[in-house]
Specification:
This is GSCFA family protein. The protein is α/β, with parallel strands linked by helices. It has 9 helices and 10 strands. A 5-stranded parallel beta sheet has the order 2-1-5-9-10, sandwiched between helices. It has a 3-stranded antiparallel beta sheet with strand order 7-6-8, with no helix packed on it. The longest helix is centred in the middle third of the chain and has 21 residues.
Length: 315
């Protein structure tokens, strides 16, 4: 008997190799895939404004990056002894206003360049629920614990999400016509919104994404949400909060992503990188022993050979 419903995936064209340049933007699931790509030493640029959950926040970041927006004092505010920006996650917040502005404008310039040169852009959508700041009538990327009475909570319609995704794709393709854009919906459950509300939110995202994907324009969908909900489908694959995928689930979804999107020709290199990474993480009982010194020399030689063979790999 088969106690699983495995999702049958097909390999895509325009696959990722060590000449690819990757940009990942969106929810915390983007962070998980980004960490895997970074571990295996693919050229990766991830979430310059920190984690962004909704399509409008992602669209705003890409719009501002492409237009090289200059953030100024009017785009920031102080709360709880830190300076924040509604467009960015609290990870970007700073103790001084100048430091925050430096962070924001530096990230904008980097994102502009990365989007221009990217071969693959992965956009992970987390939720269709958004918070509109009443004072400016704008949807924010992060509320930064500003009192909730200052916001209106809204659910984006399928049409609103579709329009946002279309704007995002047009903007990217305008400066980088050859980029492959991969959309995915985060399997993280936003249960603070409610069980029914979370399902409706994910349904809106999935419905909108499937109206925009087209192989002809290099717009693709990777089913991380479906792998988690319909393939793994068990609480043993969740972390203790019962909302986030645990390490086992993340590794499984990574293997599916690898099968679909990573060029098989790189698999031997991935294995070699993994060996080196584990060697670098090794902690000896006696760091001055002859055996350990020989181990370090062998490891150094492996790194030198790999970096020489593939210039994009750096340890």
């Amino acid at each position: 008997m088969n106690f699983r419903t495995n999702i049958k995936l097909q390999k895509e064209r325009n696959q990722i190799d060590y000449n690819s340049k990757l940009v990942l933007i969106g929810s915390c699931f983007s962070e998980n895939i980004s960490k895997k790509l970074h571990y295996f030493k693919f050229p990766t640029f991830s979430n310059p404004f920190g984690i962004l959950f909704n399509p409008i926040a992602i669209e705003n970041l890409i719009t501002n990056a492409i237009n090289l927006k200059k953030y100024s004092e009017k785009n920031t505010f102080s709360l709880n002894e830190r300076w924040h920006c509604f467009d960015a996650h609290s990870d970007i917040s700073a103790i001084t206003q100048n430091e925050l502005l430096l962070n924001l404008n530096s990230a904008i310039k980097q994102t502009h360049q990365q989007l221009k040169n990217a071969s693959h852009i992965v956009i992970t959508l987390g939720t269709a629920w958004v918070y509109r700041f009443i004072e400016t009538d704008t949807i924010v990327g992060n509320c930064h614990k500003v009192p909730q009475k200052k916001f209106l909570k809204e659910m984006l319609s399928v049409d609103e999400i579709l329009a946002s995704l279309q704007n995002t794709c047009v903007l990217i393709k305008d400066i980088n016509p050859t980029a492959t854009i991969i959309f995915t919906v985060s399997p993280v459950r936003h249960l603070k919104d409610g069980f029914i509300e979370n399902t409706q939110s994910k349904a809106h995202l999935i419905s909108a994404v499937h109206q925009i994907i087209t192989t002809k324009n290099k717009l693709f969908y990777f089913p991380s949400f479906e792998i988690m909900l319909d393939d793994l489908r068990d609480y043993r694959f969740y972390s203790s909060d019962m909302m986030h995928p645990n390490e086992t689930a993340i590794n499984y979804i990574w293997e599916q992503f690898k099968y679909v999107w990573i060029d098989e020709k790189t698999f031997a290199t991935l294995k070699e990188v993994d060996t080196i990474q584990k060697g670098m993480a090794h902690r000896p009982f006696n760091s001055s022993s002859t055996q350990h010194q020989q181990f370090l020399k062998t490891l150094h030689d492996k790194i030198a050979l790999l970096e020489k063979t593939i210039p994009n790999i750096h340890f």
